[in-house]
Amino acid sequence: MSSLTEFNPVEAVALLNRTPAALNAWLRGMPDIWVRRNEGRNEGKDTWNAVDVVGHLVFAERVDWMPRVRMVLENGEARAFGPFDRFAQLKETGEKSMEELLDEFAELRTDSLNALRELNLQAEDLTRRGRHPALGVVRLSELLATWAVHDLTHMHQLCRVMAYQYREAVGPWSAYLGVLQCTGHSVP
Length: 188
Prior knowledge:
Blueprint lengths: L8 H19 L4 H4 L14 H14 L1 H11 L13 H4 L5 H22 L3 H4 L2 E4 L3 E4 H25 L13 H4 L7
Helix pairs in contact: 1-6, 1-8, 3-4, 3-6, 4-8
């Protein structure tokens, strides 16, 4: 078993592989209260609903993770990653249903993980370095670890956004429900 600071690609892929099924089981067929409402803070500005979160995962799957993996392998530090628009899904998702987004995400994730497996990365590949436009030099292992934790961050966000819908309905029990006290840990 690896320590808390070591990166293991097999472990990361195990998590990345399960995210689409977890989201599908959780969100497919859910009423709009759970998938179309946001946290309502600041009149809903700067918060996402579940559709927005899955749309973000779709967009990231298409333009972020594997394209950046390939850039590290092909260009190293010579060429910085392009900027990532963390809000692109708000324009791109349009009127897609949750089901359409879940299907698209599952297909894209399968393609991404197949492409990752085909690279047959070795230990020395994981130490290769690329250049992030804001963070500077990053290792391929850090990019891959971030991909897995990014999934978990948005699963956490979904819990928070969905729980917010019943924040008043739970009455005094809200004092015991940590998810209702959570204000988030990052910009969406």
